[in-house]
Amino acid sequence: MSTMNISLPDPMKxxxxxxxxxxxxxxxxxxxxxxxxxxxxxxxxxxxxxGGAESSSAEPADAAYFDTLRAxxxxxxxx
Length: 79
What we know:
Layout: H1 10-23, H2 28-54, H3 63-78
């Protein structure tokens, strides 16, 4: 694992310390790693959403479409 040192203004350091304490993180490094993971997840989700928005729709997403999806899911649960 690599090490990275960052500088924070006092109010930001206080905020990080409060989050570590309030959310049960073991250290400020653990808190920052979690923030970075969550940011990566958000970026991946954004990419997927944009890709979906740019693609053409195969069929309309109306009530019948969602009924079909629900039926497929229920079929998998009973299998």
